[in-house]
Specification:
Layout (H helix, E strand, L loop, with lengths): L7 H21 L47 E2 L7 E5 L7 H17 L6 E5 L5 H10 L4 E3 L4 H10 L2 E2 L2 E3 L13 E3 L4 H14 L5 E5 L3 H16 L6 E4 L4 H13 L4 E5 L5 H6 L5 E4 L9 H4 L5 E5 L1 H4 L17 H20 L9 E4 L2 E5 L5 E4 L1 E6 L2 E4 L5
Parallel strand pairs: 1-5, 2-3, 2-4, 4-6, 6-7, 8-9, 8-10, 10-11, 11-12
Antiparallel strand pairs: 12-16, 13-14, 14-15, 16-17
Helix pairs in contact: 2-11, 5-6
Length: 400
């Protein structure tokens, strides 16, 4: 919308004042002082001619130039002056500090094994310090910056950092838009798990799907990604149900699913809700997010019998020879263990991207899954499908 011009009222007032002044000067000025007095009138003098009112005009239209937002300054991809790899993490954040520490531990463990600890630099920051942290990476002449870790920090860096090194972001953009030049992305996104499960469900013979999802933002994202992938591969539009722990709502859910049984059900709920939700589902195939079994004790895992979900290889198959050289450590929380594995893979990929000419193609069996580099510079991750059977999580075999 064009802005209102602040001088128009003053222009209009000035025009009216000048017109009024000209009328007063023309009609009220005194006559010549030397003229003789006129004789007494014997007839009525003619009526004076009416004074025409000076026309008034609207003030001229003054064109107002449109407001144009200034173009954002161009972003400079910093040319490296060293082979240093900087990892930029919110280590000082009260909210994300523990997650950042897990990524850092995995990253440094892989660097030690690879003999590259000396070329690695850790740059920590707080909740509002990601831009100064990236400025420090630029000043160091880094060949690559690994980070940011959170979506908000990634958005900030891509929008406001005037210079940055080549980047390996550890998250993805919320809107899925294309990454700028010199930026790559590796993440533990639930979207990757949803895509894999949708393909698995279709291969298992399911064609109709119901989804039962809680209001947790992560579970809503998981459900939306699954539904989109499911329809892309030819499945019918899923029937969506909201998870509510109240018994009467759960009874209604059961009646509706029994009346119109789907071929399979997607359970998008947190682990503490999963056993209850599963008990109200009809018999059939059930798929769930990777958090479905987190923290669930073995006796309660029996309530999730037959559920299929995605797990990273680091936790699904820890004895694999692929990880024989890497130090295993339990952080006491599956979420932190997954972030430790993300740090392991981040270093392996960082060494490739820190080369003067980064590779166009990467296929890697990593701790977080099979990783493939796409032309959009995003690493697609494919984990392992697990099956809960007899109170244990085991690798799923399609013949089962």
């Amino acid at each position: 919308m064009a802005a209102t011009h602040p001088t128009l009222p003053r222009v209009r007032a000035t025009v009216l004042v000048l017109l009024a002044a000209s009328i007063l000067v023309a009609c009220a000025g005194p006559g010549p002082l030397s003229r003789s007095r006129p004789a007494a009138a014997t007839t009525a003098p003619p009526a004076p001619a009416p004074i025409a009112r000076a026309p008034t005009y609207a003030p001229p239209e003054v064109p107002i130039p449109p407001v144009v937002a200034p173009a954002p300054p161009p972003v400079v991809t910093q040319q490296p002056t060293s082979d240093t790899i900087c990892i930029v993490l919110p280590l000082e954040s009260p909210l994300y500090g523990a997650a950042a520490a897990a990524v850092k531990a995995g990253f440094l463990a892989a660097a030690d094994v690879g003999g590259s600890a000396s070329r690695t630099r850790i740059i920590g920051h707080g909740d509002d310090g990601v831009l100064p942290a990236f400025a420090a990476a630029v000043e160091s002449g880094a060949a690559l910056a690994v980070g940011p870790l959170t979506r908000d920090d990634l958005k900030t860096v891509l929008a406001l950092a005037l210079a940055r090194p080549r980047m390996l972001a550890l998250n993805q953009q919320e809107d899925g838009s294309a990454l700028p030049e010199g930026v790559y992305a590796l993440s533990l996104s639930v979207e990757s798990d949803a895509e894999l499960l949708a393909r698995r469900a279709y291969a298992d013979g399911a064609r109709t799907m119901a989804t039962v999802a809680s209001d947790a933002p992560l579970q809503r994202r998981f459900k939306a990604a699954f539904s989109a992938a499911w329809e892309r591969i030819g499945g019918s539009t899923p029937r969506d149900y909201r998870f509510d722990p109240h018994p009467e709502i759960l009874s209604l859910l059961r009646r509706e699913l029994v009346a119109r049984p789907p071929d399979a059900t997607l359970l998008a709920v947190n682990s503490d809700e999963a056993p209850l939700a599963k008990s109200f589902l009809p018999p059939g195939l059930v798929y769930a997010s990777s958090q479905i079994a987190d923290g669930v004790p073995a006796p309660m895992l029996r309530d999730l019998e037959g559920v299929r979900y995605v797990e990273i290889p680091w936790l699904a198959d820890p004895a694999s020879v692929i990880f024989a050289r890497l130090p295993h450590t339990s952080l006491g929380d599956p979420v932190l263990d997954r972030l430790y594995a993300l740090g392991l893979d981040a270093f392996t990929i960082a060494e490739l991207l820190a080369n003067p000419i980064p590779p166009d193609r990467v296929e890697l069996e990593g701790a977080t899954g099979h990783l493939s580099l796409t032309p959009a510079h995003v690493f697609v991750r494919e984990g392992r499908i697990m099956l809960i059977r007899d109170g244990q999580s085991v690798l799923y075999e399609p013949t089962q």
